[in-house]
Amino acid sequence: MVQSDSTNGHSARSSTHAATKLRRTLTESDNIIVAPGVYDGFSARIAQEVGFDCIYMTGAGTCASRLGQPDLGFASLNDMRQHAEMIANLDPTIPLIADADTGYGGPNMVARTVAQYHRSGVAGLHIEDQILTKRCGHLGGKAVVDVETFTQRIGAAVQARNRLGSDLVIIARTDALQTHGLEEAIHRIDAAVAAGADVAFVEGITTAEEARDVCQRLAPAPVLVNMVEHGATPSWTPAEAKDLGFKIIIFPFASIAPAYGAIRDVFVRIKKSGNTGLDKEFTPKKLFTIVGLEEAIEVDAQAGGSLYSKV
């Protein structure tokens, strides 16, 4: 499906729907898909400015930035869907993969989640097998549902996607590696793929040998690796991850971790000296340019206005 993005500042180009674009990249390209984690509109704009072809909305970052809470199941479907919709529509030509946690309930709620993410412009989502009171995959003490419940979640997601005539990419995530071991994790993903999942996601892989084994055993299903620095999984570059057999690599903390350090440093400086010490090149206009000033000026001018001609 080809559509014009004229209302979002993309009138000079048309694009394939983001979900279709992500699906084609999975099946037609040999490259690994690299998706930095974004936690709000500003970090998403920066990822776009740098030139990434795909971005990832982190659940942990959404909980932290939107709610000021830890990733322990505080975020509801509405919290996550609203956040994803905003990010996905900043530039609808760039696919967004979004965390959908457990799907937020039984099969009907999972179907509702898929429908809402689809209508919000999300290109891909992952649904996991943790219990509803979930937690970050790189924390201890996780608990998972039985394999039948997990496959029902994935089946409901796939059926909802198909009813919508959507290309939304369904990613099946299991946290059973830490709770039940490798064999059970493989078994669960095999069942999820049989239920129609497009991509496999085994959370918390701990070694390169384990990673290679997972990718080989789950082939031909493409496999995603979650690159949470200083978590359970070793730090790999995209090239290293591709060599191990992965097709997608996400970096959930890539924006929120450095943001914490930078923001805290400035706040401490204000408290100690009374000034920010900010780079003099970071002017209000610089900020607004990052988040779409030129597009706003263009829309106004094309409508015959001159409101922003002297900005």
From TrEMBL:
Protein name according to UniProt: Methylisocitrate lyase
InterPro entries with a match to the protein in the record: ICL/PEPM, Isocitrate_lyase_ph_CS, Pyrv/PenolPyrv_kinase-like_dom, Pyrv_kinase-like_dom_sf
Catalytic activity reported: (2S,3R)-3-hydroxybutane-1,2,3-tricarboxylate = pyruvate + succinate
Organism the protein comes from: Cylindrodendrum hubeiense
Similarity-based family: Belongs to the isocitrate lyase/PEP mutase superfamily.
A single GO molecular function term of this UniProt record: methylisocitrate lyase activity
UniProt biased composition (Polar residues): 1-18
Region (Disordered), start-end ranges: 1-21
Alphabetical list of PANTHER family matching this protein: PHOSPHOENOLPYRUVATE CARBOXYLASE (PTHR42905), PHOSPHOENOLPYRUVATE CARBOXYLASE FAMILY PROTEIN (PTHR42905:SF2)
Database matches in PROSITE patterns: ISOCITRATE_LYASE (PS00161)
